[in-house]
Amino acid sequence: MKKILIILIFLSITGYSKSQTKCNIKQHYGEFITVQKMKLKNEEFLVKKFIEISGKENFVNVINSNINYLNYLLTNFSALHNSEVLLKIADSLTLQKEYIKLLISDTVFNGVMTELIAKTVEKSMTKDTILMDKMLDIAVKYFSINRINENGDFVGKVCAGLNDIEKTEKVRRAQLEAFCFSSILKNYKSTEFSMYDEFVSSVKELYKVNLGVSKDERLLRAQGAMYILMRKNENLKKMLIYEYEKNKENYPFILIKD
């Protein structure tokens, strides 16, 4: 009887411990997501962002170590942009309250946030396995040749919008996009990796090949060539591996580097 009692007590404690890892992340949005109204050239818009938090909750490390990552998700996987309803609210506290209320009902954003927490904090979902080839396929899309100027020069940007992702990726991978974007942004001009320098070096390579007479065709070929050049860029690959290894427990995927 004593043995059975001990086993039952142990199971009860184990079950209780597991239940403590559960986290309804939606109920905590107001703790680490803020919204403010800003005005530029007489036009009002909303600035929404994640902020670092303190505390002993099990999700704190995931939030604090992934601010740029999470801001990418908030910007690109939320239906709430410059909502006319929110822009009409004058009081900042009321604006914050109403924004969080709307965000809690945002099924797309809740989906990516729930996935992140389930695979890192709760461990109730298995992490995805990501091949290095797939990660690079996403990462190169953040190195864009936007246009050709009046002098015939290529004009490009790093981490500038989603045009290349939307045009080339039939199925969006929110967590992978967020990781690649935030890693490149963090190392835009870092001492060790400097993605800006790698991008400039690749642009210079484009001038060595005549990519066409028509400006439109030249632009299209230049962008395709940029993907290939950055896909073969060892510094980009090393940077992505470095950023992954540094914080891998707080990412919802496992990177297969070979």
Attribute tags:
54% helix, alpha+beta, two-stranded parallel sheet, 13 helices, 258 residues, two-stranded antiparallel sheet
Topology:
Layout: H1 2-19, H2 29-32, E1 33-40, E2 43-50, H3 60-64, H4 67-76, H5 84-87, H6 92-104, H7 107-122, E3 128-131, H8 132-139, E4 143-148, E5 154-158, H9 163-168, H10 174-186, H11 195-206, H12 215-231, H13 234-247, E6 253-256
Parallel strand pairs: 3-6
Antiparallel strand pairs: 1-2, 4-5
Description of the molecule:
The chain contains 13 helices and 6 strands. The chain is of the alpha+beta class and 258 residues long. Helix 8 packs across helix 10 (174-186). The longest helix has 18 residues, at 2-19. The radius of gyration is 22 Å and the shape is globular. The protein starts with a helix and ends with a strand. Mean pLDDT is 90; it is low at 4-20.
Counted by DSSP, the helix tally is 13
Number of structurally distinct domains: 2
Mean pLDDT: 90
- The fraction of residues in strands falls at 5-15%
Label the overall shape: globular
Order of the strands making up the biggest sheet: 1-2
The major beta sheet can be summarized as: 2 strands, antiparallel
Oligomeric status of the shown chains? single chain
What is the total tally of β strands? 6
User: Rounded to an integer, what's the Rg over CA atoms?
Assistant: 22 Å
Parts with pLDDT < 50 across at least 5 consecutive residues: 4-20
The level of helicity is 40-55%
Query: What is the straight-line distance between the termini?
Result: 54 Å
Structural class: alpha+beta
Secondary-structure element pattern, one letter each? HHEEHHHHHEHEEHHHHHE
